[in-house]
Design a protein that fits this description.
Elements: H1 5-10, H2 15-28, H3 34-46, H4 50-55, H5 63-77, H6 82-86, E1 88-91, E2 94-97, H7 110-119, E3 128-132, H8 138-146, E4 151-156, H9 159-172, E5 177-181, E6 194-199, H10 206-209, H11 214-217, H12 233-241, E7 246-255, H13 261-270, E8 274-280, E9 286-292
Parallel strand pairs: 3-4, 3-6, 4-5, 6-7
Antiparallel strand pairs: 1-2, 7-9, 8-9
Helix pairs in contact: 2-3, 3-5, 7-8
Domain Release factor glutamine methyltransferase N-terminal: 18-87
GO biological process, one term: methylation
Keywords: Methyltransferase, S-adenosyl-L-methionine, Transferase
């Protein structure tokens, strides 16, 4: 955001003008949601929502506000995700705190929650749930809040991710959700059987990570992205290990990479799961695979 001394004196940087300039600048750099990005970041600086920006469109920004916005805009221009700049991302109707320690929750992952709830509806009052690769806790906490009488354990290998998840659980009142450091099943207490296991593991093939958009590959944790040579290293471990921790009739539901649902469904069948189903995300891709342990 630059301007000559004459421009500063002759034309104020109003909300409308800043948004128009920032939108054009981000579009030049390939941003797919340039106007939304500009509005969200300016709203954060001014402490108002997008409706407020529209109502006060002709209000000039003072020097401090311009400086604060300029800093956020420059970081977004460099590729930093808007969710990290805002510090929050909505998921399943709730605001989750996010930062570079965790993967940013995606709308398509809400399908994992929907499938998990639908396939355990008969256990709504008593389910014991294990959420692997919990990250920000978005899946575990959503399940805990939707089913307040369930008992949910979220596990992750990252201490940083667990700190974020615990903060989210506290903020969102998920008193029935707990979190534990574990490499998948390795640290999960033995002797317990779960009615539901969910997982959104790393599933991007290692060689494909470098080709992801800059706001993903440059900022989100690679630990939560890279899934081995074919993207299925963690998926195989989860499908193979889940039967030992599931109760009879228990459900395993997993998010998968688009195009891999068929291969993952075969893993489910080979591991003894019945009722194996593939579920579409909002874009029409098969995004979740689920099955029941007989």
């Amino acid at each position: 955001m630059t301007m000559s001394e004459g421009e500063q004196q002759s034309e104020a940087w109003t909300i409308r003008r800043v948004i128009t300039w920032a939108t054009g600048d981000l579009k030049k750099r390939g941003a797919s949601s340039a106007r939304l990005d500009a509005e969200l970041l300016l709203g954060k600086v001014l402490g108002i929502d997008r409706v407020g920006l529209l109502i006060d469109a002709e209000r000039p920004l003072d020097r401090a506000e311009l400086a604060a916005y300029r800093e956020l805009h420059q970081r977004r221009r460099a590729g930093e995700p808007v969710a990290y700049l805002l510090g929050v991302r909505e998921f399943y109707g709730r605001p989750f705190r996010v930062d570079p320690r965790v993967l940013i929750p995606r709308p398509d992952t809400e399908i994992l929650v929907e499938v998990a709830l639908a396939r355990t509806r008969h256990l709504a009052l008593s389910a014991r749930v294990l959420d692997l690769c919990t990250g920000s806790g978005c899946v575990a906490i959503s399940l805990a809040c939707e089913r307040p009488t369930s008992r949910v354990l979220g596990v992750d290998i990252s201490d940083g991710a667990l700190a974020v998840a615990r903060e989210n659980a506290l903020r969102l009142g998920a008193v029935n959700a707990g979190f534990l450091r574990s490499d998948l099943f390795a640290g999960v207490p033995s002797g317990l059987r779960y009615d539901l296991i969910t997982a959104n593991p790393p599933y991007i093939p290692d060689e494909d990570v470098a080709a992801l958009q800059i706001d993903i590959r440059g900022y989100e944790p690679h630990l939560a992205l890279a899934g081995g040579p074919d993207g299925l290293v963690f998926t195989r471990r989860i499908v193979a290990g889940a039967p030992a921790l599931l109760a009879a009739g228990g459900v395993l539901a997993m998010e998968v990479e688009a195009g891999k649902a068929g291969a993952v469904a075969e893993l489910f069948t080979a591991a003894g799961f019945g009722g194996v189903s593939r579920h579409l995300d909002y874009g029409g891709h098969e995004r979740v695979v689920s099955g029941v342990l007989p």
